[in-house]
Fold this sequence. Notes:
alpha+beta; twelve-stranded mixed β-sheet; 4 helices
Amino acid sequence: MPDDLSPAHDVLPFGRAPRPDTGPALADRLREVMTKNLGDHATGLDRVRIDAATVQGSPDVQSLDVDVTGLVVRAMGAADAPDPAENVEHVTARERAVARTIRAQGHPVTLAGVAVDLDAEIRDLRFTWVEGADGSLSIEESGQSTEHPVSGHLRAAASREALVSTVRELATKALADQGFTLTSLDVDLTSRGPRAASIVASAKIRKGFLSASAQITATASIDQAMVLTLSDVGASSRNPVVAALLLAVRGKLEEVDGKRIDLASSLPPGVTLSDVRLDVGEQLVLSVRVG
């Protein structure tokens, strides 16, 4: 029976009803959604390759393969986020479905100025097709469960230097908003094992006639139980004036020093984090496995 659209689950507007019931129709619809949400913030959408297959006589998706190689997406803020399905006031139909295999790759895809080599796959993802009284179609997240878990993996690799360059740009803007000029920034990222890394960021800043250096340090590690621990977090400067300015920052950093985050327990039912690895070299490689 039709009912009000509950905001309890994430909802993605997906064009107009009815739902696409063939692979080519699903691929075309997904391309339309990507173009609508990313069109003003991306280039290379014409290079994106989408292949899809549906299950005849069923709302399920057999497979969805998306190749975003060559896509360039600029940094977006909260104001750039896709519009929610705010026009859907009443639901006229719901169909529960399963996406049996979803694959995504980009060799590379450029995100916020960083070229990322991406490979991802997720299996048995449950969702619901939602039709609104206004003729709209949406995809609603359907809660996974321990009886119906998802599985899959993600591998993302990016140039270490490119990431540092992006951090430098963000820091330059953030400091400029406070009236400071960032004259230099060196970031030393060191591997402490397959699940741990430490970072030392040394910056030189200037404000008027004041010029000094500051340093921020932190170490992150993930144990066998998939608990993330932040340690050795701090900020310092040999310049007493800058050190005083860092007091507020240091207080916030001390709040997270020693903080433990249970990654496994923070995931919804049916999503089990089985492994996380971070390899640090000329490239930073993040590998995640679920299920």
